[in-house]
Design brief:
The protein is mostly helical. The chain contains 19 helices and no strands. Helix 4 packs antiparallel against helix 5 and helix 6 packs across helix 14. The longest helix is centred in the N-terminal third of the chain and has 34 residues. The radius of gyration is 21 Å and the shape is globular. The mean pLDDT is about 85.
């Protein structure tokens, strides 16, 4: 008998929480103000639910390491498969760089040390390459990291929610709750942050790329997605209330809003409690990156092996078959970004890199929902261990059209300048230009790689 797989049902649920729940993205959402509660509820119903169910059906029906790349390629061919795998991959090193920029600030809180430019870059590079090295090993070897990061994330979400309740009861809320303030805001600056809410809900398909490490993926994947999705929705709403109650919208920092909220409630910027919270938050960044790197690398490597990404992404370890080529490319791109970051005249580097990562990431999901519907039509006899219920109209409107519209609108509000004042242009144009450059690269790859694509 072979060795029993280590990826249990409990670990699968915790992995969903680790992957999907993104603590560092809470601050940009809180910047929306009280209307964030409307958008959270709306997005849970209009996006999280259909997306989670679609991912459960596609992941159990078409098991592979390719994830959304494989689903889209089956439906629309190699060129679209290349585009999706490229968008899906390039977002990751950009995201890793944006989180690396946060690490020196967290260490400053923990140790009370101010770092110069060179030490800051070195710290950021260490963060990046630790993630890269850990991703050289199978997910089962890192499952304790994923489980631990998930537990810490839940703890921090409950902590900030609890502190928010405490503040609301003892001192009153920082942002006055009125019926009008709870209504959705359609201010362009606020709407640009709605993409972060969608980002906070993505990642269920990463679990599908771990199918080979599971005991029973056909049962574990849908259960983990459904249970994990319910837990995630609950902790998002609770932590959202905590941040909204604890810190005035005008004072929210897109760099470290969760930690700022804790500091505001306690009235302290230093001390053991603040240092511990900063340390735990730092650990969640590692957990996020490790869980996502394993899924993203598998997808990029699988695409390269099928001729739909450059060959370097298809390099695997001779010892354990892990996708080391994709992992090293992550490290190279993220390192370049953090090295040039100090020379970029932008006060909010985290949001700039994070927003660019958002745009590319959301783009990779746009074809997923139409692919789900098309595969239902062209492959109707395929066994579907988990099948989304609903008639044809429900499938087209709720499971395809609505998520796609929300994705496209979010991309537009994040990447396209909606006004032409100098402040808006300075904040948005770098994101627009970066997105256009990566789109052009994607089209070049689609044209070149499609000639070598395998069916």
């Amino acid at each position: 008998m072979g060795e029993k797989k280590k990826f249990s049902m409990f670990s699968a649920i915790l992995t969903v929480i680790c992957v999907v729940f993104v603590a560092e993205a809470a601050a940009p959402v809180a910047a929306i103000g009280n209307s964030q509660y409307f958008w959270w509820i709306f997005m849970i119903v209009a996006f999280l639910l259909p997306y989670g169910l679609v991912a459960a059906e596609m992941g159990t029906t078409y098991e592979s390491d390719g994830g959304i790349y494989d689903w889209v390629k089956k439906a629309y061919g190699p060129k679209m498969g290349t585009r999706v795998s490229w968008y899906y991959w390039i977002n990751f090193p950009l995201w890793m760089a944006s989180l690396a920029i946060m690490v020196p600030e967290l260490l400053k809180v923990i140790f009370g040390i101010e770092f110069g430019t060179l030490p800051t870059i070195i710290i950021e590079l260490i963060f990046i390459w630790v993630i890269v090295l850990i991703s050289f090993f199978p997910v089962c070897d890192s499952v304790w990291i994923l489980n631990g990061a998930a537990a810490i994330k839940v703890f921090l979400a409950v902590l900030i929610g609890g502190l928010g309740v405490y503040m609301a009861v003892t001192r009153g809320v920082a942002n006055e709750l009125t019926p009008s303030s709870l209504l959705p805001s359609f201010d362009p600056n606020s709407l640009s942050y709605i993409s972060v809410i969608i980002f906070n809900m993505l990642g269920f398909e990463v679990l599908c790329t771990f199918a080979g490490d599971m005991e029973n993926p056909k049962k574990q994947i849908p259960k983990a997605i459904i249970v994990g999705g319910v837990v995630i929705a609950a902790i998002y709403m609770f932590s959202a209330f905590g941040i909204g109650a604890a810190i005035p919208t005008s004072e929210v920092s897109t760099d470290s809003g969760l930690l700022d909220a804790i500091m505001l409630i306690t009235g302290k910027n230093t001390g053991i409690f603040i240092a511990v919270c900063a340390f735990l938050f730092l650990l969640t960044l590692f957990g996020n990156m490790i869980s996502w790197s394993l899924g993203v690398n598998n997808t990029a490597c699988y695409a390269a092996e099928n001729g739909d990404m450059p060959k370097v992404f298809g390099i695997r370890s001779g010892k354990n078959e892990m996708p080391t080529g994709a992992a090293i490319m992550n490290g190279i791109v993220a390192s370049i970004v953090v090295i040039i970051a100090p020379f970029i005249p932008n006060k909010d580097l985290f949001w700039s890199f994070f927003a660019l990562n958002l745009v590319m990431f959301l783009l990779s999901y746009v074809p997923v929902f139409p692919a789900f519907y098309k595969m239902r039509k062209i492959d109707p006899d395929r066994e579907r261990p988990f099948k989304v219920s609903g008639n044809d109209t429900v499938l087209k409107l709720y499971y395809v059209a609505l998520p796609v519209v929300l994705l496209v609108v979010s991309i537009i509000f994040t990447a396209v300048p909606l006004s032409f004042d100098s402040e808006t242009l300075a904040a948005t144009l770098p994101i627009t230009i970066g997105a256009v450059i990566f789109l052009i690269i994607g089209e070049i790859l689609a044209a070149v790689c499609s000639k070598n694509s395998r069916k």
